[in-house]
Design brief:
Keywords: Methyltransferase, Pantothenate biosynthesis, Transferase
Number of strands: 8
Family: Belongs to the PanB family.
InterPro entries: Pantoate_hydroxy_MeTrfase, Pyrv/PenolPyrv_kinase-like_dom, Pyrv_kinase-like_dom_sf
CATH superfamily of the largest domain: Phosphoenolpyruvate-binding domains
Radius of gyration: 25 Å
Helix content: 40-55%
CATH architecture of the largest domain: Alpha-Beta Barrel
Function: Catalyzes the reversible reaction in which hydroxymethyl group from 5,10-methylenetetrahydrofolate is transferred onto alpha-ketoisovalerate to form ketopantoate.
Number of domains: 2
GO molecular function: 3-methyl-2-oxobutanoate hydroxymethyltransferase activity; magnesium ion binding; methyltransferase activity
Bound molecules: 3-methyl-2-oxobutanoic acid
Number of helices: 12
């Protein structure tokens, strides 16, 4: 937390990336990410679900434990999935405690503005760091009419600022701002005394977050990518090429070659062959 606060004070952007298991967290850690988010986007990108509403707290816990084992210095945060915190502040606290105790990550993130302030207050009062999430909140996509840019009107932008201030006041130490015009996210950031992490919210936030499979290009061609995603690699193509070559080499018996096998002393082999030859014929 102190490291993150120092980055914020210095004006150095905070880097956050999603990870869902040991290898994806391991590579994020090795690349020096300041924060690793076990996002509920794992519902779609790791579990193949239709949207985030299907993923459960128990699903999240399994993935949190896997991520936590790989994260040494990155600060780890997990989403509270839909249905695990909206009923009451008590429910939110109970879910947050499970994420910390059983999931072994260091903080939680939850979606929502002013209306979630009592839940945020309850969780932070128990000593659990909370990241807020405002703007486009994918768990509410049905109510929002899909994945739409938020805060585009004066009223929408004012609501966003009100939400940000309420979430900060309730004790969130950081706020993710998703799919909001860059100018609005910048003004909201300037009005706050906690860092903002942008995703589709321009360069005026205190840091950035992306979904790892999106930025690494670990998906088949033709998949929709939001405008704000920059694809830094094509992991899918590289994995596909490798797996196709492996398949071909197994079929042609080019793999395994001699260097992939374990040697045996010649005299042991001669003796083994002799013993086999002396065995009675199979009936
Ligand atoms: O679930 C997720 O991956 C997220 C990020 C996109 C912020 O909430």
């Amino acid at each position: 937390m102190q490291t993150l606060r120092n980055l914020y004070k210095k004006g150095e952007p905070i880097t956050m990336l999603t990870a869902y298991d040991f290898p994806s967290a391991h590579v994020a850690e090795a690349a020096g990410m300041d924060m690793i988010l076990v996002g509920d986007s794992l519902a779609m990108v790791t579990l193949g679900m239709q949207d985030t509403s299907e993923v459960t707290l128990d699903d999240m816990l399994l993935h949190c434990r896997s991520v936590a084992r790989a994260a040494q210095s990155a600060f780890t945060v997990s989403d509270l999935p839909m249905g695990s915190y909206e009923v009451s502040p008590e429910q939110a606290l109970q879910s947050a405690i499970r994420i910390i105790k059983e999931g072994r990550v260091q903080g939680i993130k939850l979606e929502g503005g002013e209306e979630m302030a009592p839940a945020i207050k309850r969780i932070t009062t128990a000593g659990i760091p909370v990241v807020g999430h405002i703007g486009l909140t994918p768990q509410r996509q049905n109510a929002l009419g899909g994945f739409r840019v938020q805060g585009k009107s004066t009223a929408g932008a004012l609501k966003l600022l009100k939400d940000a201030l309420a979430v900060q006041e309730a004790g969130a130490f950081m706020i993710v701002i998703e799919a909001v015009p860059a100018e609005i996210a910048k003004i909201v950031t300037e009005k706050l005394s906690v860092p903002t992490i942008g995703i589709g919210a321009g360069n005026g936030c205190s840091g950035q977050v992306l979904v790892q499979v999106d930025m690494a290009g670990n998906f088949p061609p033709g998949r929709f990518l939001p405008k704000f995603v920059k694809q830094y690699a094509n992991v899918w193509d590289e994995a596909l090429r490798a797996i196709q070559q492996y398949r071909e080499e197994v079929k042609s018996r080019a793999y395994p070659a001699e260097q992939h096998t374990y040697p045996m002393p010649e005299e042991e082999l001669v003796e083994f062959r002799k013993a086999v030859d002396e065995m009675p014929e199979k009936k």
